[in-house]
Write a structure and sequence with these properties.
Strand content of chain B: over 45%
Largest sheet of chain B: 5 strands, mixed, barrel
CATH class of chain A: Mainly Alpha
CATH class of the largest domain in chain B: Mainly Beta
Structural class of chain B: mainly beta
Number of helices of chain A: 9
Number of domains of chain B: 2
Helix content of chain A: 55-70%
Number of helices of chain B: 1
CATH architecture of chain A: Up-down Bundle
CATH architecture of the largest domain in chain B: Beta Barrel
Organism (chain A): Corchorus capsularis (Jute)
Family (chain A): Belongs to the eukaryotic RPB4 RNA polymerase subunit family.
CATH topology of the largest domain in chain B: OB fold (Dihydrolipoamide Acetyltransferase, E2P)
Radius of gyration of chain A: 17 Å
Largest interface: A-B, 38 and 33 residues
Distance between the termini of chain B: 49 Å
Oligomer: heterodimer
Number of domains of chain A: 1
Number of strands of chain B: 15
Pfam family, one (chain A): RNA_pol_Rpb4
Keywords (chain A): Nucleus
GO molecular function, one term (chain A): nucleotide binding
């Protein structure tokens, strides 16, 4: 598998399949999994027995590491980030980690600064400001 | 998706979907990572009867949430175990090992009830249940899980939250 060798998320090399796929932030996954879990709770008495260990662990993880809990805030985050011509994967890393400075954002997602992309420091700064505003008013 | 003939009838579709969920959710592959949850069925094709067994195979197209860590990706994880070789952290179903070579040089291992890595001035401590931000530098897949190698030796990586001091 030659593709596997070259995988490098910092240059956005994550395989064609995943570039095309929709990428979800932790907080979005939390909403989906919780919804599914609630559905299971209604149909069976012992929902914890129904779900796989992977499901359980993933749910715990995304709950612990979600920056935004409120569904409206989650929607806003995606809306704001999607204005900045980011790849799905970049959008999610930014939404998950919520960097505070431009420098930090570039360290987390180096691909936003690669050539041919229209992201100067000002644009990134504006994006981060927008993000922190959502957090404040959540 | 293979289905036994006893499930045929009015509830064919439901049986197919519930079998799919049981079989696929929680599995793991190198290409797609962990299948966490099936979120929707796109379509179910025509069944094909297997000669000699009576089993019928249906092509099912479905959508699901998968979890796949990438090399070079930065993510947050909870520390589960610390020893002198380094520490283990967990991001959902994925295990991540950070070797002591990939922990900043100014952090020293301290053994005891709560083994940990601490900076010389004691300001930063990595121990069980800490939350750390790390970068994945390698992934390995076996049949049931994904093991990653991570590093915290880079700018903006390291402990983000220590529940014992908060």
């Amino acid at each position: 598998m030659s593709g596997e060798e070259e995988e490098n998320a910092s240059e956005l090399k994550i395989g064609e399949e995943f570039l095309k796929a929709k990428c979800l932030m932790n907080c979005e996954v939390a909403l989906i999994l919780e919804h599914k879990y609630e559905q299971l709770q209604q149909t069976s008495e012992d929902p914890m027995n129904q779900v796989s260990q992977v499901f359980e662990k993933s749910l715990q993880y995304v709950k612990r590491f979600s920056r935004y809990k409120n569904p409206d805030a989650v929607r806003q985050v995606r809306e704001i980030l999607s204005r900045y011509q980011l790849a799905e994967f970049e959008l999610c890393v930014l939404g998950n980690l919520c960097p505070e400075t431009v420098e930090e954002a570039i360290a987390m997602v180096p691909s936003i600064k690669t050539k041919g992309r229209a992201h100067d420091d000002d644009a990134i700064e504006r994006m981060l400001n927008d993000l922190s505003l959502i957090k404040k008013f959540e | 998706m293979q289905l036994h003939p006893r499930h045929f009838g009015r509830n064919l579709r439901e049986n197919l979907v519930s079998k799919l969920m049981k079989d696929v959710e929680g599995t793991c592959s190198g290409r797609h990572g962990f299948v966490v949850a099936i979120t929707g069925i796109e379509n179910i094709g025509k069944g094909l009867i297997r000669d000699g067994t009576g089993f019928v195979t249906f092509p099912v197209k479905y959508q699901c949430v998968v979890f796949r860590p990438f090399k070079g990706e930065i993510l947050e994880a909870a520390v589960t175990m610390v020893n002198k070789m380094g520490f283990f952290a967990e991001a959902g179903p994925v295990q991540i090992f950070v070797s002591n070579h990939l922990i900043p040089d100014d952090m020293e291992f301290q053994s005891g009830d709560m083994p940990n890595y601490t900076t010389s001035d004691g300001s930063v401590k990595i121990q069980k249940d800490c939350e750390v931000r790390l970068k994945i530098i390698g992934t390995g897949v076996d049949a049931t899980e994904i093991l990653c190698i991570g590093t915290i030796k880079d700018d903006f990586l390291g402990v983000i939250n220590d529940p014992t001091t908060a």
